[in-house]
Amino acid sequence: MLYNLLRPLADHFILFNLVRYITFRAGAACLTALIVSFLLGPMVIRWLKRLQGQGQPIREDGPERHLIEKKGTPTMGGLLILFALTISTLLWVDLRNGYVWATLFVTLGYGALGFADDYLKVTARNTKGVSGRVKLIVQAGVGLITAIWLTWLARGPMGMALTFPIFKEFVLQLGFLFPVFAMLVMMGASNAVNLTDGLDGLAIVPTIICAGVFALISYLVGNRIFAEYLQLHPVVGAGELAVFCSALIGAGMGFLWFNAPPAAVFMGDIGALSIGGALGAVAVATKHEFVLMIVGGLFVVETVSVIVQVFWYKRTGQRVFLMAPLHHHFEKKGWAEPTIVIRFWIISMILALVGLATLKIR
């Protein structure tokens, strides 16, 4: 909004020339989202406490200490993330950019699904919420619409092509299967972040790290000079997603202020599903889906631990892990919550460096 209002004035007032630069607007979006989070955070948390009373229902089959330490903590704190992210993005992005609108669509669409899921949990006082089948159908519908939208925006042969890290020229043309693949990327990222969100601060910091990496990737692929120098596949218009990713960083840091141990509020499905879908959409738009699997490797491992646990238990009646997702396994082994969280953060940082390295190793 500010970009569209101030850019025409840049020829008359040199200070307004700053809005022409994505880097300036990305920094401003991050700071704006952080300020919005700080201002709205206390009010949102008080409102959630009044709305929910006893807070988020705690799984009885989970780690025993959760029934004591986390009882009464409100959920649906992802509302704060969505407020800050959306407000900041709309303020600083070029509103004519289709990639941003497509990414906001899947973010808010998955957020609405998460809101319904969280609301059913806190009103019915159980941990079930929206049924798994309905959740997958809605995710698939929103994801497929977004995938087709992003494919149309890309146009040309690259619109339906799959690129790979390290290989600078090889691409795989998926044709009309690409929207299905892109839909699965967004669904997978959304559910992976949701599974990781089980300890205070565990999911939001890896999300911030991923958003930081993809803010850089978006800027690079959206700039033809940098893309050609690094031998990346350029995506015209994708640079504006750097502003969106920066807003996500600011919103994530603002939420972490209140989610740091001991958490004053939990993210809930409204936050986890939406930010996971957002990361998936950005990865699809920038043609770096496999890099998301590397940078978000922690989310992948958490998801795989659940799949392995369920598969093996159904076949043998025995568990591979003491409890899934993986972070609960380490809780059962006696690791302190801060130890698990901080070590997982370190792993995310290492994976981010590996993902960034693929931009140059081509």
Helical amount among residues, as a percent range?
A: 55-70%
Strand order of the largest sheet: 1-2
- Please tally the helical runs, counting DSSP H or I stretches of 4 or more residues: 15
Q: Regions with pLDDT < 50 over 5+ consecutive residues?
A: none
The largest β sheet comes out as: 2 strands, antiparallel
Q: What's the N-to-C terminus distance?
A: 38 Å
What Rg do the Cα atoms give? 20 Å
Overall 3D geometry? globular
The averaged pLDDT comes out at: 91
Q: Give the number of domains.
A: 1
Beta percentage is under 5%
Which structural category fits the helices and strands? Answer: mainly alpha
Write the layout of secondary structure elements.
Layout: H1 2-6, H2 22-52, H3 66-69, H4 78-92, H5 98-124, H6 132-154, E1 161-163, E2 171-173, H7 178-196, H8 204-222, H9 224-229, H10 241-259, H11 268-285, H12 289-295, H13 297-316, H14 326-332, H15 337-357
Antiparallel strand pairs: 1-2
Helix pairs in contact: 2-4, 2-10, 4-5, 4-10, 4-11, 5-6, 5-11, 6-7, 6-11, 7-11, 7-13, 8-10, 8-11, 8-15, 11-12, 12-13, 12-15
